Amino acid sequence: MVFNVSDSNDRKTITEFPREIEKKDHVWIPMSDGTKLAATIWLPKDATENPVPVILEYLPYRKDDFTAIRDSIRHPYFAGHGYASIRVDIRGTGNSDGYLPDEYLKQEHDDALEVFDWIGEQSWATGDVGMIGKSWGGFNGLQVAARQHPALKTIITLCSTDDRYADDVHYRGGNILASDMLWWASTMFAYSARPQDPEVVGEGWKENWLERLKTTPYVNEWMSHQTRDAYWKHGSINEDYSDIKIPVFTVSGWQDGYTDAVFRLVENLPYAKGLIGPWAHEYPEVATPDPTIGFLQECLRWWDQWLKGIDTGVKEDPKFITWIQENELPEVNYDERPGKWVVDSSWPSKNVNEKHFWLNDGKLESELNSNDKVFVPSVQEHGYYAGVFCPFGEPGDLPSDQRFENGKSVVFTTDPFKESFDMLGHPMFDMEFTADQESALVAIRLCDKAPTGESTLLSWGMLNLNHLNSHEHPEALVPGKKYQASIKLDSVGQTIPAGHSLEVAISPTYWPQAWPSPKPVTLEIYAGESTKVRLPVRTPQPEVDGAVHFDSPETAQVIDREILRTENRTRQISHNTITNVWQLEDFSDEGERLLPHNGLKHGSINKNTYTIQSGNPLAAKAQCEWELTVGRDDWEVKLITNSEMTSDNDTFYLTNTMTAFHNGEECFQNTWKKEIPRVYQ
């Protein structure tokens, strides 16, 4: 995960603002239990005489080194336009006191409420607060908003979710998201073990560091909750949307892993505005692919309306703005995705209707013509060309040509379309089926097939078939018994050109996205009325479509940084034809940077390996390795971690190892081992 600021000819750097800015480093915010949170504050110099509203970004990613580059282009921009912009390290991260035992804990939320109280006591603050955040900061913005502190007037949430079980890096469709469950746990295992800066906090840094090093790996807790129980309901604001009573601006991109939440938030929150562009998991003023937009200007319009009471027109803005992408042949990264902005006044939209296609002898047809049975066997290596679950815009993130995958699944294809059409929303696949095992899953891919044969992945979805009736109370399947399932695929905003076809691919495996069922599975699908594809086809609205325009991106001046080691990424798939072992190795040297303003340098290297053997689901293995460094000339720490996950028919096996070095000498080493029963996984 690289927090970079790329250079762009289209982005304008602003160096002079309406109000002169001052930056306050190493501000301590006291909590009621004696803990101190570390903050950096950018605010207008005259704020004491002319108090301003406050923007809060609240993250565990180390404001003084790891996010310092990205923070520098955004927070001063807000301050220069009349806000106090505050970046706070969550308890147990960066220079804040304590340690962080898990994500989105009640303690994290409680601390945020105390930060609001502290803000209300400052002479430079009006007391009105807005929160902004991407990913973790977007998640906790929603979660804190549900706590209804009177100071919090609005939030901007990017790349976030309202459902921690069904729509995050842990479980998808009731399946373990094998590509990301261990990877994200290993990431936070390493990230959360980084120490405070002794130059800032003094001699106590090392005692606190040892406390952080001893923290139990998060994956042990996550794997102990394989169903949607109270653990996941905590922080899932879809449990009661009415808890959020303030305006919400929700933003994502088609390459992001969290696009679906925008649809749900726009539908269910009393006042929400939604925006989806072509982007990966990033802020839209710096995201790839193009077009980027003047997102910070949009934020100011939002803040000015809800924090200053200025009529900026956001109340009259369309409820939902989305970028409908034009067709592109498959590439593992794109610099640009041509398309058009469209608007809808609500979601669900009256402009979107379903079009149905039924299965018939390898084809998808708009009329029901078959009652055949289709056998779908397990091919364990199906899924290696899916790309990553949540692209950050790095080379190699996106799915390869799906012809690599189609031979490992059962595929149904439409005839070439005579006219182009747009899709917006969630494709669905309904199926009547039987399975030959008690535990099974199904994965569905929707692809655009070009006249020249290339197959581009548009959307996918999967379902743990033991969760047909409930994610809370899964049940064993009865082999041979008929069931009905509906699989929701990820949302799309896509034009299908005339001359192209659509493909639907079906498989009971999708490694490494889904941890495989313990035994090879054959599904038997019954073509007929109950088995069909439902596509969300949008009727064009010529009077408004294409009429939305955004300003070009603006940011503040990025801080100076020196590149000590450049980034490098490789992503390779190998197949041993003798042992029939398949392996994906994803290596990312995220580089090393020096920040001249504080002398800190930081770097990271990550390698993730996913292995399986044809015909043998119990050979599945995920391994995630990290090396992190942080320090300055006379002080440096290094962390080396290794996380592994395997399984047998009944049990998951987790092993996490951490080794820490201080100024080149090993000072800590520990291994955590955990066995966890499989619960219909």
Automatic annotation (TrEMBL):
<dbReference type="InterPro" id="IPR005674">
    <property type="entry name" value="CocE/Ser_esterase"/>
</dbReference>
<feature type="domain" description="Xaa-Pro dipeptidyl-peptidase C-terminal">
    <location>
        <begin position="300"/>
        <end position="556"/>
    </location>
</feature>
<keyword id="KW-0378">Hydrolase</keyword>
<dbReference type="InterPro" id="IPR029058">
    <property type="entry name" value="AB_hydrolase_fold"/>
</dbReference>
<dbReference type="Pfam" id="PF02129">
    <property type="entry name" value="Peptidase_S15"/>
</dbReference>
<dbReference type="InterPro" id="IPR050585">
    <property type="entry name" value="Xaa-Pro_dipeptidyl-ppase/CocE"/>
</dbReference>
<dbReference type="InterPro" id="IPR008979">
    <property type="entry name" value="Galactose-bd-like_sf"/>
</dbReference>
<dbReference type="GO" id="GO:0008239">
    <property type="term" value="F:dipeptidyl-peptidase activity"/>
</dbReference>
<dbReference type="InterPro" id="IPR013736">
    <property type="entry name" value="Xaa-Pro_dipept_C"/>
</dbReference>
<protein>
    <recommendedName>
        <fullName>Xaa-Pro dipeptidyl-peptidase C-terminal domain-containing protein</fullName>
    </recommendedName>
</protein>
<dbReference type="Pfam" id="PF08530">
    <property type="entry name" value="PepX_C"/>
</dbReference>
<dbReference type="InterPro" id="IPR000383">
    <property type="entry name" value="Xaa-Pro-like_dom"/>
</dbReference>
